[in-house]
Amino acid sequence: MASFLEHHLWFSLLLLMPISATAQNVSRGESLMAGDHMSSWKSTSGEFAFGFQRIENGNYLLTIYFNKIPERTIIWSANGKTPVQRGSKVQLTVDGRLVLTDLTGKEVWNPDTAGAAVAYASMLDSGNFVLAGPDSFPLWESFDHPTDTLLPTQILNPRNKLSARYSDKNYSTGRYELAMQSDGNLVLYTTAFPFESANSVYWSTQPVGSSLQVEFNRSGNIYLTAKNRSIIYMLSSSASSMQDLYQRVTLEFDGFLRHYVYPKSSSSNNKSWSMHWSTPLFNSPNDCMITDETGSGACDCGFNSYCSLGNDQRPTCLCPQGYVPLDRNDLTKGCKQSFLSQSCDDPNQEVDLYDLVEMEYTDWPHFDYEHHQGVRLQWCREACMRDCFCTVAIFRNGECWKKKNPLSNGRMAPDIEGKALIKIRRGNSTLKPEDTDSKKKVHSTSVFVVSVLLCSSVFLNFLLQLGTFLLVFIFGYHKTKMDQTGPVMPSTNLQIFSYKELEKATQGFKDELGRGAFATVYKGVLAYENKICVAVKKLDNMVSGGDKEFRTEVNAIGQTNHRNLVKLLGFCNEDQHRLLVYEFISNGSLAGFLFKNPKPSWYRRMQIAFGIARGLFYLHEECTTQIIHCDIKPQNILLDDSFTARISDFGLAKILKADQTRTTTAIRGTRGYVAPEWFKSLPITMKVDIYSFGVMLLELICCRKKFEQNVENENQMILVDWAYDCYIDEKLHLLVENDEEALHDMMRLKKYVMIAIWCIQDDPSLRPTMKKVTLMLEGVVEVPIPPDPSSFISSIQPI
C-alpha cells in the first residue's frame, strides 16, 4: 500500500509542477513537415516523439508515438478524422499558436488554449505533449485530451474519455468508448455510430462509491480513486516489476481495453507488444457474445455477417457463403446476398434451384419469426427450403428457428451448439427472374390465338396435331431429364453419372486442371439448365473388382458436409471407369497461391491455416465415418471465391491400392509431408494427417516450400529443420524476413511455430489431436514448450 500512496503523492505534485526546464523545448517559429522522416520533436530521453506518421492510405497523421521501438506505436493523434497529405505542416507560430495546416494552407487542427499565447511547447518523457505559457505552467496538454490510449502517470477523469479508432488502419473515431459516469461507474459502451452519443453499456465496474478518476501508475496498476485519493476499485495490478518495460492501455477498435507491455532492453528476445491484461474478455469464444439486439457490442459486424475469433484471437467479421461484403475494406458494414432470392409466387417450383449450406457452431440469435420444437434436422431443412421468407434456419437439440433478412448478431464459436442452415442459390447466381410483363404478353397472345382457332373450321384438326405433339414432347422431355440427372445414391445426395455423360461434360476430358500420382482432374460443365461447372477426377489403377468397396468409400465421403471441405457432387462406377465429380473451386490450389510474388498477406495465410485445421478436425472427429486424408499438401487445398480453404481428395487413400498409399514424394531423402511411420511399418492413424498439417503450417508461416535447394545457407534447405533451429536460437524473425505484417505479430508467429513443431514430432503419440491443434490455434488452449521433433524421450508427455 505504501507504493500506492507514493504514487498518489506523485500525481498530486504533478498537477502543481511547472514543466521541467530540462525538457527539450520547442520555440516559436519552429515547424514540422509531413513526409520529412527525420523531423520530429523528441522528449529528453528520446523515448517519445511528436510528429507526423504515414498511414496505410499514404496520408499522414500528426501523432505522439513511441520513438525507440521499430513499430513507432501511435498513442495519440490530432487529426484521425482528417489525415493530411505529404507536405502539410504543423507550426508553433511566432504569435504563439500551434497550428496544423494542409497543402493549401487550410487549418486542419489547433489545440484550444483559451486564447492564451503559447510561449513554447515540450514533448515530455512521460509521453505528454505540453503547450506552456510564459510562466511555464501548461495551457494545454495531450494527457487531458486522450484519443484511445493511456500512459503511466496519466489520469482519466470525468471530463475526458477514451474513444476507439474505427479500425486497425483507420484512426477516425470508432464504435466504442470508455468513460466515467456521474455515479462513479466506469463503463465501456457502444456509440450510436456514426454519432458519438452513447448507445449501450457492455462492460462496467458497477457503482463502487464516488469514483473520481482512473489512475495508471508506473508500476502497471490501474485503479479508481475517490475524492480523498483512496483506492476504491482495482482494475489491474502487477506483481512483477514494470521498470524495464514500456506500457500502454489502449481501447482498441474491437471494443476491448487492453494493457500492453514492451521490453525496453535491446537484448530482449521478445521484441513486440505483449498483452498484460484485458477487459472485458480475452481469448474466449464468448468474445463474439458481447452484443445487444441492435447489432452493437464488442464485435459489431453489421447485418448478414457473423463474428468469429480470428487468428490473432480477436473478433473478426465474416460473410457466410453466398454473401459478399458491402465494403471489402470495411467488413463491419455487413454483407449482402450475391444471388437472387427465392420467389414467393410459387416457392415449391424453385426448391430445386436452392440449397442449404450447413455452418457448424454458428447462430444468429435474434429476430426469428418461427420457432418449432420436437423436430428433426431434415424437417427443419425442408421447412426452410419451402418457405420463401426463410433465409437461415437454426437447428439445435430438436428445435428449429427460422430467420429472414437482414440477419443480426451472427456469431461463430466452439461453444455454440447446433448449426445454421444458410439458403443459397445453386449454380449461376446472376440469373434474372422472368419478366412479369413478358408473361402477361404471352398470356394475352395465347388467349387471342385460341379465340381465333375456336372460330375456325380447322380447329379440330389442329387440336389433334397439338395433342400428338404434346405427347411426344412430354415423353421426350421426361426421357431427356432422366438421362441428364440420372439416379441418386441412397442415403446421400450424390448423383450417379454415366461415363458417357462425364465424357461429354468434359469435352472428351480435354481441359486438364491438374494431375497427380493416381488421378487426373478435368474441368467440365454439366448439361443442366444452370450449366454447373464441376471438377471431374478420373482415378487410375483402381482395385480390381472393387465395386462394393468403391461405393462404400464414396458413400462415406458423400455424407460429409463442412465449409472447409470440397463438396462431392457425384461419381461414376461403370465397368473399369471410376470417376468422382466435385464442385468447381475457382481460385485454384494453395500451392499456386502461396508460393508466388508478392506474398499473400499474413492475415490471409493464417485464416487459411485455421480453415484447414477446422476441416481436418471435422474429418477426424466430427463426421459420421472417421476419415484419414493421407495426402495433406498445398496441392490438395483449394481456395474458393473468398479464399476460404477447402480440403479436397479426402478419403481417397482408402480407395487406392495399399502400396500406392505408401508412396512418397521425391524429396531426395529429406522429410516431406509424409509422416515417418509410413516407413517404419507402424499403424497408420489420423496422426499422419497431423504431421502433414504441421509441415504445411510452417509453409504458410514462412511463405516458402518445405524444401528449397537454391538458398545461400544450406541449413535453410529443409524447412522443418530450419524452423526448429530458429525456434531454439530465438531467431524466429528470420523465418519471415521482409514480411512486415508477420514481423509485427511475433507473439502469434512464435505460438504457431510451436504448434507446428508439436505436429511434426517423429513419435506419433506425441502429436496432438486435430481438435487440440484447433483449440491451440484459437488460443483457447495454451501451447506448451515443444520437444525436439526427432526426440523419442519416453518422459515427454503427449498433449
From TrEMBL:
Single annotated GO MF: protein serine/threonine kinase activity
Cellular compartments per GO CC: membrane
Signal peptide residues on this chain, from the entry's feature table: 1-23
Record-listed E.C. numbers: 2.7.11.1
CDD domains: B_lectin, STKc_IRAK
Keyword Repeat: no
Catalytic reaction equation(s): L-threonyl-[protein] + ATP = O-phospho-L-threonyl-[protein] + ADP + H(+); L-seryl-[protein] + ATP = O-phospho-L-seryl-[protein] + ADP + H(+)
Keyword Transferase appears in the UniProt entry: yes
Span of domain Protein kinase: 507-793
A Pfam family: B_lectin
UniProt xrefs under SUPFAM superfamilies: alpha-D-mannose-specific plant lectins, Protein kinase-like (PK-like)
InterPro entries: Bulb-type_lectin_dom, Bulb-type_lectin_dom_sf, G-type_lectin_kinases/EP1-like, Kinase-like_dom_sf, Prot_kinase_dom, Protein_kinase_ATP_BS, Ser/Thr_kinase_AS, SRK-like_kinase
Cell location: Membrane
Predominant location: membrane
Stretches assigned to the Bulb-type lectin domain: 23-144
Record membrane topology: Single-pass type I membrane protein
Chain positions recorded as ATP binding sites: 538
Keywords tagged on the record: ATP-binding, Disulfide bond, EGF-like domain, Glycoprotein, Kinase, Lectin, Membrane, Nucleotide-binding, Receptor, Serine/threonine-protein kinase, Signal, Transferase, Transmembrane, Transmembrane helix
Family listed: Belongs to the protein kinase superfamily. Ser/Thr protein kinase family.
Protein known as: Receptor-like serine/threonine-protein kinase
